[in-house]
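Hi everyone, sorry if this is the wrong subforum. Our group has a chain we'd like a structural model of before ordering constructs, and none of us has done structure prediction before. Sequence below.
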Amino acid sequence: MELQTTAEHKQVNQALGFHWLSFAYQGLTEIPYDSILMQTDTLEVLDLNCNNYTSHVKFPYMPSITAMCINKNKINNLPVFVEEIRRKFPNIKVLSMMNNEAAPSYFNGGSLSQYIDYREREEEDWC
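Answer:
Right subforum, don't worry. Here is the predicted structure as tokens:
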């Protein structure tokens, strides 16, 4: 079996693109556009867990995204955030927002009634 040089390996990776990209645990407040925009055609899963994103974060338009994890950030306005997601990721199927103020649950001190209200608002926003 012939080994690829670093340059050849890099070309193959760029040609194939990434399907999953993680920026978890980076303390980010803004999307790293330079890294993400190189993957607009192939990127399917975006991991933004444990950062400092707010409800007003702006994403690039990426129809290839089907799943995003943005758990444990500072998202507190569900309608604003969901509208941005709906406009920029039209093919998204999975959105994980656990441990954000906008997604109340037992994990972040939310009550059962808050959780039910959140789920109802989320369903209305996506439909």
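For your construct planning: The chain is about 35% helix and 10% strand. Confidence is low (pLDDT under 50) at residues 1-15.
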